[in-house]
Every structure is written in structure tokens, then in C-alpha cells.
Amino acid sequence: MGTNIKFIQGNEIFAEAALYAGVQFFAGYPITPSTEIAEILSEELPKRGDKFIQMEDEISSICAIIGASLTGLKAMTATSGPGFSLMQEAIGYAVMTEVPLVVVNVQRGGPSTGMPTSVAQGDVMQARWGTHGDHSIITLTASNLGQAFRMTVEAFNLAETFRTPVILLFDEVLAHMREKVVIPASGEIEVVKRLRTSVPKGTNYHPYLTREDGRLPMSDFGGIHRYNVTGLVHDMWGFPSTDPKVAYDLLHHLVDKLENQAELLARYKTYYTKDAEILLISYGSSTRSALHRIEARRKRGLKIGLLELQTLWPFPRQTVRRECEGRSHILVVEMDMGQICQEVKKAVSEPDRVFLANRIDGNFISPVDILRALNMIQGKGV
Amino acid sequence: MAVKDYIRQRFFPQIWCAGCGHGIVMGGMVRAIEQLGLEKNEVVLVSGIGCSSRVSGYLDFHTMHTLHGRALAFATGVKLGMPHLKVISPMGDGDALAIGGNHLIHAARRNIDITAIIMNNNIYGMTGGQTSPLTPFGKKGSTAVLGVIEQCFDIAELAKGAGATFVARTTTYHVKEMIKMIRDAIAHKGFSLVEVMSQCPTYYGRKNRGGTAVDMMKEFKEGTAPKGSKKLEEQPGFIERGILVNEARPEYVSSYMDLIEEYQNQRDNSA
Amino acid sequence: MVKRIVFSGSGGQGVITASVILAEAAVICDGLNAVQTQSYGPEARGGATRADVIISGEPIHYPKVLNPHVLVCLTQEAYGKFSSIIRPGGLLLTDPRFVKVERKVDARQVELEMHRAVMAEIGNSIVLNICMLGALIGLTKLVRPGSVVKMVKSKISSDFLEINEKAFGIGMRLAESAEALWSASDS
Fold first, then answer.
1. Fewest beta carbons within 10 Å, which of A68, A84, A152, A208?
2. Interface test mutation site (partner A, options C60, C61, C151, C155, max chain A beta carbons within 10 A)
3. Which of A7, A118, A288 shows the shortest C-beta gap to C24?
4. Domain count along chain A
């Protein structure tokens, strides 16, 4: 069997990967720079006998995929900043009701309408804290399209495994660029199926009673088990409760099920880190500029390496701490005002060694920008 | 199946105030479902937030208590996800017409096979008596102590204009009529909406000197008239009851399934 | 080997399609790596359009082009905006119908009457972009000509295939004569 090499655009690869992961339902609303995902799936899903609907806004889009996920379908939506803002309340609902789904946010310049066709990475904290109340969430990203394919499949897998919404935080550069991708063969990447309850008809099924292995088997709406789903604090049956113990346990369950697995969920890559004195930390498309600069500097003998974060949330604190140990300088490369930089500072023992190389004007951060920051932290001036 | 078999008895008594009309509407819904002979596992209730939305917790179907205003958006996902299910959304007037107004008109426009039961008590009850888009001009609420200065919606006209193919209006006084209308609405293929005028003696009644629940229901009896009736002709100020729209138009999910078939035919032909 | 190319012109001239075909030919047919990016937004609807392509045997990290080895300008506006970014010793390709070359850049400037040739021999300016690709390949040998033709075939509906292939040939021919002139003047 020959390898399947494609020259393909980011949004196309996100859609193709979602299909590989078994997406069966998409609801969305057009927004730059994510629209192509909806356009592609509007054709590919009905072709496969699956469902696509263009909703009246992003609020209804995410609500529709929550409803569809409860009927047993793998569901997703795709949007960008303003739409992602509109989705926040329902993301909280999905967290609270433990409904698996995937939200792609192709980041663009913000706040507000911002710069619709320009790149930015300013939604990192919104992905983490956009919805109200204590909670946890999984957020993944990627720096090239081959990786984006794998992370998209991973997002669906983690959504099913942990019964949680997963955010794929891509960006305009990644979404619109085209590059070579080797498409994995069917079966090459594991695809996690929904875990359904084995409780037989006539026996009580508890939708929110955690199994010993920590997992919560589901039952499809329309199936043999009837239960209630609510955004209110609820008991193991899914019925509202005002019992303080129920509330305490539920909140801990929602946070702990992900935060306690932070290292297991940590996806990252290291480049040239073995002897690196200076460590760059980056994620998403910014990684590409960082890597470009590192390879150029390496040729000049500079001991410099890169930690690329693919999991942003839960923040891989241990990994970051370990990788930063013993470096002279840490330089975080991102296209926002330091949202991940702040997390890195919190994770390391010497936050004074952590610096930021960023760009927030809509231009893609360039290797020259990184060189300037490197010169500055090394005391060579700008 | 007996009517009481559709009820989650352990949650009774329910939370509604004494005299509230919503229990009557819930009773009407259950009886309509019973008369249609629907299995519990083929019905999904999707409600939003508010007094009315608590209906979903009390009935033994697949139930979702969702976000304020968004019931129909969630319901759309359920219906398109699993087309054989009967999807019913019990809603309030603020829930359906204010925060959820956009989803209501778009569900109607799509003509998706969902039944919206709107319990219109002209006020926000759960939050304590604020005016809603259904509070008539001049009537009072806790956010309009001198009387509301906005015009109110006509739910039926709005639904009709948006493309709903089944629209009916009744009251909590006219229980038999209500059961029949809800039954017809659920059986209808397409987006159906039943507005049930429901009394809120605690807030709407008290703030507007409407009297007791019984007084308010008397008003429903005496201030409304059936569509096409002589009484309505003579008294144009009366509120019209009855099935106001009942039309056949392509239903969204059916059209979607046709689309799937069309793609399949294309593939078969090219193969 | 890394080659950076910038295509520029106005919306509707097909410069983006040309950039995708070139990059795709490099990846699918010639076994190279390539990255393509383009300008989006209001400027892409009628204003100055730009598409960047990087072709390399190695992995490509930074996807944008700062200093292109090759710059194609199909409007005066694009020329004014981008001619200064060309890498010293690079190649600038223009069509005198659209661009009056003003400034001196430290690059080989090639002016080819692609539009005139296409109109004279085909009578449809829709294939100007493919003619331009033909000229570009003729001048630079970035990818094999056959690779481009193969990609054109996979992208363009059969009704327009013949005129596109013809346009590609015209471009190659124009490049050949320019090369002949260049070497003559060189010697």
C-alpha cells in the first residue's frame, strides 16, 4: 500500500482528521478563519450518512452538538474568537454534564472582532477559563499539519475517554497554510469508541456514578436507560441536588478527573534540548519560527533548544519544570501578551529567567523577532 | 400505560407555587403523550431554564434541563442526531421569546419536527416577577413598577411568520382542548408550537391585581374565544384560541435524509 | 536547496491557484517539501493579492517568505508594494502590459509579454496564470515541467485543459527566448 501524501490546507486537514476520528455530527456557523471546516464537512458528512447543520449562531451550534452527542454521536463544532466567546456558557454545560465533544477554535486577532484574517494566540486563557466556575478542560494544539491531524484524532479520543469537551486551539496561519502531509492509514492511529454502559434493561443505570477505573459509561438518548441531564449540581442519577456534599464531590470530580492526569495528558516535543543552555518554549504556529531560529543559531554554535507544548490545558507543569531545570534562560515564543509565559513562570523555580518573545500586531511572529529577543536577554542589545 | 407511569413520582410534590398553571400544562402534556401511546424511550424532553423548564425533571422520559433560552438548539441536535425520537420542549415565555427568540424563529423556519409547548404566564417567575416580552403594555412587574412601556409579542403570529407549520393557542382553563392540541402538535410532522396561557398568581397576579389563581383562570375562560366563533366576531378584544396554523411543508430532518439519499445515489451511479 | 517564491497580482488573476499548483507539483510529483501561504481578508478581494511558496528538500519551519528568490508581479500596485523585498541576485518576472518597471532592483528583471501572447494564440486571459507558471518554470527549473502539467490536469476541468496546457507551453517558449537573449547579452 502506497503512502497517502497530500498537499493540503490546514482547515482541510482538521476536517479530514475529524472524519478519521469518526465525527458523525457537526453544527456550526460561518466565521473567518475557520469556515472551510464547515464547508468541507457540509459535503463529507451527508455523503457518509452523517449529520451536518448550519445553525443560526455559535450558541446554538454548540448546544446542538451537545444534544447530538447525548444521542450517541461523536460531535464537533468549529469557530474563531467571537464565536468561541459565544460558546462559553454551553462549554460549561458540557463540562458539568460530562458530554464528550470537540471544539475547534481557529484563533484570530482579538479582542472583539479584532483582526479576522490575522493570526494571534490570545485565546489560551479563554480556552481554560472562558466559562464560569471552577472546572478543568483539555486543550490541544499543533504546529504543523501532520501534527494537527494527530492532535485532532487525539482530541476526539480524549473527549470520549474523559467525557469532557476538548478544545483544539489552532490559529489562522496553521488553518490557512498548505503543506505536505502524510495521511495516516486507517487503523494507524487508535480511534477511541464511546464507552457505553453494560447495565442491562430493567437494572438501574447511574449516568454519573464513576466506575472503579474512573470512567463513566454512557447510555444514548433513545436507548433503554432514561435519565436526566442538567447543568445544575446533580447527583449520580443526574437529578438536581442542593446537598453540599454532592456539590463538593461533583466539583472535585470535574476538576480532579483531568488535573490529576495532567502529566498523562501532557503531549509535547523537544528539539535540541539535551545540551541547550537557552530553552525556547512555544506552541501552535509560533513553534515554526522558533524552530527556524534555533536551527540557524545552532549552526553558529549556540546551545539552544525548544520545548513545544501540544497540550496547553491541563498545563503540563511538571514537564515544563523538568525541561526548564538548569537552563540559563527560558524564552517563551507566542502571539499574545504572554498567556503561556505566565504559566511557565508559575511552573519554574526561577521565574526571573523566563522571558517573552511575542508579536501582537496581526503579523506572524518571525525568526527575526525571536533573534531580537534572544539578543536582548543575552545582553547584546536590540 | 397509565398516566402516572410517565411520572417520576419521587420528585413530587413539585416546586411550583400554589395555584401555578404549569402543573396543569404538565398534566396536559402527559395525557397527550399517553393518548398517542408513545413509549417512554421514544420521547425526549428538552427544556431551558425557568419555572416551566422544571417539567423535564418530573417526567420519566429521556430528559434534558439545559441553558436559559437554548432548549430548541439542544433539541435540534437531539432530533437530527436521532430522528426517530419525539422531541418536545417545554418552555416559558421569557425563555422562548426573549433570550431564546432567535432559536425559536429558526426552528420554526427550518420546520424541524420538534414540539414547543410555551407556558405563557406573562412574567419571569423563577427570578421573582420581572417583565417579559409577553407582559402586556401597561402591566406591572418588578422591573416596571409603573407598568411596562414596551409592546408585547403575539407568540402565535410570530411563530406563523417564522414558518411554523402547526400553531395553536389555549389556556390552563381549557384542559381538554389543551390535551387535544398538544396531541395534534406532537403528531404533526414539522415544527409545532402550542402556546398555553398559564397563570402566575404569585407574581403576575399579585402585581397586577389579578386576584387568585381561580380569578385568573376565570379570566382565561371569559376573555378568550375559539377561532371562528361568533363570540370572537362580536368581541374583537377577546384572545383567540384554537389551532391557528396547520400546514404541510417539507420537514427539515426528512429533507436532510433525502440529501443523504441523493449523495448515495450519486455515488451508486458513478460506481 | 531552499527556494522562496512570491506571486503577486490582483484578485481574479489566478496567482493563488498558480502558487498552489507549483507547490503541489513539488510535493506530489517531485518528492520535495513545500509550504504555501497567501494573503487573506478584504485585500484578497480585488486588491493586491499575494501568495508565498517555499520549496525545499528539507523540512520547512517558518512558512512565510521575507526575501524571495523569485518574485512575480502582475499588477503595478503589486510591483510597487513588493519589488523591494526581492533577494539580491533574485529573479523578478513581470508582464509589460501590467507593470512598468521603474526602480532598479538588485535582481534579474525579466519582462515577458505573456498577456499579449495568450490573447493572440488562445484569446482568453483566464489562462494567463498558467502561462506565467510556464514562464517561471522555464526560467527557474524549480520543478519539472511535467509535474506542473500533471497538477494542472488534476485541478482543472477537462473543458479548459487544452487551453491551459497550451498556455503553459507559451510560457515555456517565452522563457526560452528570454534565456537565449540573456545568454547572448551575457557573452
1. A208
2. C61
3. A7
4. 2
**Separation CA B6–CA B86 (nearest Å):** 15
Are the Cβ atoms of B81 and A226 closer than 8 angstroms?
no
Residue A10 shares a structural domain with residue A157: yes
| CA dist B50 → B6, B47, B62, B195 (Å) | 22, 9, 19, 16
Task: Please check whether residue A184 touches B, CB under 8 A.
Answer: no
Total domains in the fold of chain B? 1
Does the interface predicted TM-score (ipTM) exceed 0.95?
Answer: yes
Give the residue numbers spanning the domain of A361.
Answer: 267-377
Q: What are the structural domains of chain C? A: 2-186 (3.40.920.10)
Cis status, amide bond into A111, omega within 30 of 0: yes
Question: Where does chain C have alpha helices with state H?
Answer: 15-24, 76-82, 114-121, 128-140, 145-155, 158-186
Asked if A177 and A281 sit in the same domain, the reply is: no
Contact assignment for A229 to B264 by CB distance below 8 Å: no
Q: Are strands A178-183 and B192-197 parallel, antiparallel or unpaired?
A: unpaired
pLDDT over 80 (residue A127)? yes
Helices (H), A183-329: 244-259, 262-265, 286-299, 317-324
Rounded alpha-carbon distances, angstroms, from residue A127 to A134, A135, B199: 13, 11, 43
Q: For position B243, which CATH number holds?
A: 3.40.50.970
User: What pLDDT, on a 0 to 100 scale, did the predictor assign at position A356?
Assistant: 98
Residue A179 to residue C61, Cβ atoms within 8 A = no
Shared domain for A49 and A144, answered yes or no, is: yes
Mark whether A294 and A175 lie in a shared domain.
no
CB neighbour burial string for A86-96, b if at least 16 within 10 angstroms, e if fewer: bbbbbbbbbbb
Separation between Cα atoms, residue B124 and residue B130, nearest integer Å: 5
Q: CB neighbours (10 Å) of residue C33? A: 18
Q: Are B113 and B251 in contact (CB under 8 A)?
A: yes
- The residues, ordered by sequence, that sit 6+ positions from B175 with a Cβ below 8 Å of its Cβ are B24, B27, B28
- Residue written as grid cell 481554560: A128
Cβ burial B4-13 (10 Å sphere, 16+ → b, else e): eebbbeeeee
CB-CB under 8 Å, A47 with B263: yes
Residues A88/B70, Cβ–Cβ less than 8 Å:
no
Q: Which residues of A touch B11 (CB under 8 A)?
A: 239
Q: Tell me, yes or no, if A51 comes closer than 8 A to chain B by beta carbon.
A: yes
Contact between B64 and A230 using a beta-carbon 8 Å cutoff: yes
Q: Kindly give the interhelix angle for C128-140 and C158-186, rounded to the nearest 10 degrees.
A: 40
**Does residue A13 form part of some domain?**
yes
Domain boundary among A131, A164, A183: A183
pLDDT digits (tens, 9 = 90+) for B90-132: 999 999 999 999 999 999 999 999 999 999 999 999 999 999 9
Q: In the listed set A139, A163, A183, which residue is the last one of a domain according to the structure?
A: A183
